[in-house]
Amino acid sequence: MTMEWIRFILGTGLLVIGAVTFLAEIFGVFKFRYVLNRMQVAAMGDTLGIGASMAGLMILFGFRFVTLKLALVLVFLWCASPVSSPLISRLEYTVDEDLEKFCELDVAEREEK
């Protein structure tokens, strides 16, 4: 009986951490004005929020086939997010002509591209 309570408390705690992370991410996305700042907050929040939420669900479900599916979803998201975020930021870097207003750039490098 005590092992079930430990699993419940640990799983619920991780789900709460994930929910708080998502709420902080939502606040950050609406607070920042520039797209690269928003993207960084969203990427960091998704990685931590999804990781904590999925770990909490895996602990709550126990060792079942659903746990394997959740682990595979988590691995896919952890592999896709670090790839997509830099590509989107590179696109913003090459397309946005007013980027110097928002951040410090190496002008010589930008003119080469």
Query: Low-confidence stretches at least 5 residues in length (pLDDT < 50)?
Result: none
Classify the helix fraction into a percent range: over 70%
Q: Count all strands and give the number.
A: 0
Order of helices and strands: HHHH
**Derived structural class:** mainly alpha
Gyration radius, in Å: 19 Å
Q: Strand count, sense and closure of the main sheet?
A: none
Give the percentage of residues in beta strands.
under 5%
Count of helical stretches = 4
Principal-axes geometry comes out as elongated
Q: Terminal Cα separation, in Å?
A: 64 Å
Average pLDDT level: 82
Report on the structure:
The protein has 113 residues and is an all-alpha fold. 83% of the residues lie in helices and 0% in strands. It has 4 helices and no strands. The longest helix has 31 residues, at 65-95.
